[in-house]
């Protein structure tokens, strides 16, 4: 008899969390747009937050993109050699990196590095009652603390995605040409035949969506932190787990929709 109410309560709490996170994101975007047109956008805070996100994600992005590009090239190159289709190795490897690899790695880095840091910062400020102090002084914490972090992540996400794409493609090209004896001309020609600007735009759009999801979850968990230092740790852990899982689910939906309505064609 007690299991049903408990399950219903958890479901209701989950929907309430999704709703409050969505409201938080909408409010942050509204304040950002309003402050942009009224000239009150906190440029200095945005620059500081953007540099922080770049500093904690750039090196891990390169370190992850290189082996990822190599792994994709090894697997694709081995398969294409077995079936005698080495001429499409560049296309298969490039599409794998651009369509799936780069956006997913971007989501992982934003969630694991940037999102966790944002949740820890806001969580610590919450338990020190700094957020309540802002409200007491008549300062909207979403406008003052959350909106700049939204802008910084949305600025960084596409740049991070492009960095991963370039690094992964260069690593894959170098391995294919030097180790798997695939001619440079064949690799580049097949890549150009199957890959278009549409795939690149889709990857950037994915990274923006993932960035928005990650920063919304991070800010919400940080501002709702309770229970002292242990609560901060819980918020950071929840940010990483929820952010990554949500991004994977969204990526699955986007991939399915693009496969149905915009299938890959030879250029």
Question: In short, what is this structure?
Answer:
This protein has helices spanning 3-38, 43-82, 89-127, 130-136, 141-178, 184-194, 197-223, 228-261.
Explain what you see:
The model has no long low-confidence stretch (mean pLDDT 85). With 267 residues, this protein is mainly alpha-helical. 87% of the residues lie in helices and 0% in strands. It is elongated, with a radius of gyration of 21 Å. The longest helix has 40 residues, at 43-82.
Are there runs of 5+ residues with pLDDT below 50, and where?
Answer: none
Q: What is the CA-CA span between the terminal residues? A: 61 Å
Instruction: Provide a count of the helices.
Output: 8
Major sheet description: none
Strand content: under 5%
Shape field: elongated
Nearest-integer average pLDDT = 85
Question: Which bin fits the share of residues in helices?
Answer: over 70%
Kindly state the number of beta strands. Answer: 0
- Estimated structural class: mainly alpha
User: What would you report as the Rg, rounded to the nearest angstrom?
Assistant: 21 Å
Order of helices and strands: HHHHHHHH
Key traits:
8 helices; single chain; 267 residues
What's the topology here?
Layout: H1 3-38, H2 43-82, H3 89-127, H4 130-136, H5 141-178, H6 184-194, H7 197-223, H8 228-261
